[in-house]
């Protein structure tokens, strides 16, 4: 990995969208996400993925929208280089600065070169631009250990070998914000600042944990919200009496037992909790069939697996506080029942 280099090139995609005259970036959403993905090509080299974080993402968004004509040339200073899933990736640092088109001499020079080589501007390496970030479980844990690691979405192929026993399979959530509710004297109460309501309608939301493995490592995936239903084909309300808050263990639901032995492509989220505590429990955001084709140019967003993850982001974030994590010490202690036990 090389740290602190400057990169200049012409943009192919910004926030998953092709460069065109009508492109306007959503400043509010990008500020909320705190990240922005740009596909950039330097001269006639390969298309690279440039991940801009926090201030750099906001600066690019604001500068991009300020241009009367859509900018094409981008210079970002002091970026890190790394390989994610076999693909070269660049990530901004807190000291990174963003420049475009005629801002500084390097972008002016590049803009002139690009105008003299229009054929280069039209070239697209489709394999690189459309490739999902596919990693092994071992890659996940290596990424988490990096000092520059941030929240991100990745994809892996793994086999389910067990269902973690000893905790509830779902929780009762507020129908509005999907945060776990508390029991009042006569009703359910949502205590979040977003709602803060009494007499809320409670809905069952997945909070289950499965054990998975690939050729490199073993990990736990936490099923939250729609990710659980996608895997089992059943809503959380049909899992049976698994929302127990006392010491009595509920039997493993058949819908979860039936997933043991299945092999899938999984989209998972590396969260701030993973980065701070190094837990081996990763949040599952989506289950994909093994024959899924790569994402199209127009569908790839500002994360490594984009659209579907962002659609469910609010539910995942709301449930994060409710899930029970399992770190490396817990792996040895977790009580897990195999199918048929």
UniProtKB/TrEMBL annotation:
GO terms for molecular function: DNA binding; zinc ion binding. Residues 310-327 have a biased composition (Basic and acidic residues). Residues 153-291 form the Replication factor A C-terminal domain. Keywords: DNA-binding, Metal-binding, Zinc, Zinc-finger. Residues 286-341 are annotated as: Disordered. InterPro entries: Euk_RPA1_DBD_C (IPR047192), NA-bd_OB-fold (IPR012340), Rep_factor-A_C (IPR013955). Pfam families: Rep_fac-A_C. Residues 293-309 have a biased composition (Polar residues). PANTHER family: OS03G0429900 PROTEIN (PTHR47165:SF4). Belongs to the replication factor A protein 1 family. This is Replication factor A C-terminal domain-containing protein.
